[in-house]
Amino acid sequence: MSKALVWDLPVRLFHWLLVICIFAQWLTVEILEDATDIHFYIGYFTLGLIIFRLIWGVVGTTYSRFTSFIAGPKSIWAYLKSLTTKEHVTTVGHNSVGGLMLPAVLLLVGLQAVSGLFITDDIINEGPYYASASETLKSYMMWLHNNIFDVLLGLIAVHLLAIFYYQFALKHDLISPMFTGKKVVKPSEAISSSRLLLAVIIVVLVAIFVYWLVVINPPVVEVDYYY
Fold it and tell me: Are 13 and 60 contacting, i.e. CB atoms less than 8 angstroms apart?
């Protein structure tokens, strides 16, 4: 057993960039004045992060793939029971319970980012699809955007509590590996590389798609002015 690479660099960058984006989104709405335009741009970047992670969850390294940690109810229940016994076994990647957090966060942040494409701040800034959307769709997207963040904050609180529980009760460090990428594992359990070339190609393709989605694709809506 020795320290070896488990979390690839793309996963670690995604994790910390998402943390920064969520904090910045809260900051540009709740604290800073006249920062709604920045809020929109961060939202587009966040949408790109979510799309990248969805793709990386299919083609990325071993422990970044959804198939490595998405488990059934029996496995989840067995792991929950093990947390209170001496038989608790640490996992190399996400455990079956922690593995539920990532899909939940991707879903909520993804909905938050998509709904932002259809809303306005009622002053100057509006999403690229606001003008072409129906009033019903606008209302629904606004409701989603205003309410999902509260649920997301709840998930973040649960995530932080779990990290502290592992750190101090189970003596299992989850924080350092998300910086270094390394954990104490068997040589056969480590990943060989972060597959950075593939990650860069995906990043470029996702950036092109988000630019197309936000800048090129939105329909031009003609507004009639009456004098």
Answer: no
